[in-house]
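Audit log entry. Action: structure prediction of a protein-small molecule complex. Ligand: zinc ion. The ligand was supplied as SMILES and no pocket hint was given, so placement is left entirely to the predictor. Protonation state taken as written. Sequence taken verbatim from the request; no trimming, no tag removal. Recorded inputs:
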Amino acid sequence: MRPVYMITGGITRFAKAHPDKDFRLMVKEAFEYALADLPGLDRDLIDGSVCSYFSDHFTRQPMAGAMVQDYLGLCPKPSRRVEGGGATGGLCFQAAWEAVASGRMEVCLAMGFETMSRVNTWKGNEFIALASDTNFDYPVGGFYTGYYAMMVRRHMHEFGTTLEQMAKVAVKNHRNALHNSYAQQPALLSVADVRGSSMVATPLTILDCCQMSDGAAVAILASEEVAQRLCQQPVRITGIGSGTDAMRMADRPHGEVPLLPHETAEEYRDLRYPGVHSFRGGRMAAKLAYRMAGIIDPGRELDFAEIHDAYTSSEIQTYEDLGFCRYGQGGRFVDAGAPFMANLDYGLTFSGEGTWPRLPVNPSGGLLACGHPVGATGLMQAVFAFWQLQGSIARHLGDAALQLPDPKKGLIHSHAGTGTYITVTVMERV
Amino acid sequence: MNTDAKLPETEEGTILFNTDPIIVKDHYEIDYLHSYAQDSPFFAGLAGKKLLGSRCIGCGYTYATPRGHCMGCGAPTSWVELPQEGRVHTYTTCHFGGEAFLKETPFTLVLVEFDSVDTLFLSRLIGAEPDEVRIGMPIRARFRRNCQFKPTDVYFVPL
Ligand SMILES: [Zn+2]
């Protein structure tokens, strides 16, 4: 395999609905933005594409990826669709990486979208829930928020995680998004606002959950030769990992914790793992990505992470899978203020527990505040991470507040089902 | 050849939500011939008030939610009758849901754990207020008298 770089990207604003644009035009907008941001790159240099969208139910247009391909004027170049639930965008990004790393392409376009406004919210929930076992899970509950609510209830039982700790994640991500003009739901919230909003599935309130969205995002990946020739600030993709777990969360067995280099078996001697409180697939994805990127202690070596916070609870669970803190410490990691931006006022006081260095998580606002147009989401994370590592946040968002002072390594994380497919990708400033 | 050929005119119209851009209502529905295939004995068991799980004939791993083959070792499983009493492993009360379940809200979901069984079983819990449910609470299975051959033919109540 050879080195692969991200050389440009683009996103549309995420919104509850974009009735004036179909999926092709949304992708086209993100694509044109990416091209405009990298003079010298034109369509002729793109060797092919991978298209990311989750649900044929939402689009009601099988082979929608092919329609995007021709709308962008990329026929007759190669293209294909990648699908993996909520992780569709992360898988798409990694598929584009594979195309370039293998030498099959010099430049590959990863493009994704979802148009979720085309049905009512309750029908949308049903479409999403159909991506759970339709023999045993869907007919009983038919609701992903319910599945995640059960997971976090067990996390609270095992580890003492609190509702306030979860609410602080929502406060953080919505607050960050006040500086992100692409976000669907920026807001200054308090813990009381989050706890006081409508209950969806106990203990998750509507502000603990991300919203359905319309939106598109693209990331363009290239070989070292092309990146050096065209791009002044390419970002190198240094680690790729993905993992899986049983589709039915009831089937999660108990076994050994796959250890990260900075952990020991002794510290997890009493942990029944993964159960329904942790994501073994996320741990696997992290382990593989860290190994490739040469990361020993992610909490200290990474400068930021854009992770799949479909729920406040799953953001906390994911800190642990990614090794930002030990399993069971995710709530305290929040209380300590570790995943918050240093320069923003959240209206919260932090425990200041010194164990963890600051590691901003979801500076963009994440899914909770940006929205979750599924097929675009993982690519949206790649674009924000790319801008962050380039130092170009101010130029793209018109606001420098979310720009970290000197970020060198960032991580993006995409997640499907109840942890069924998960991807982790490490990106580094060159 | 008929140069005056015309389609018949009809009285049917289109339901229009918006004109700029044009948004129309487009209905879609389908019937599936869904087969439970190798999972069928579980659903047949429900009709006889039996809760069937499966046990791997290779490694003995026991699944509360049945599967035809073991995900640990790949060997076929055999059907085993699960105990009809278990405990709440975790729970939630859903106040919202997918379209088909909206009329049933609020409903309480539990993952049930059984003695000597390695995995869990997703079910509904009735007969307890949301704030009465707790992890570890003993519960027992009940069955619908008129079987619908769905996993909701079994549900749980406090013991
Ligand atoms: Zn086995």
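Audit: result stored. The pocket of zinc ion is lined by residues B 56, 58-59, 61, 70, 72-73, 75 (CB under 6 Å). Chain A has a mean pLDDT of 97.
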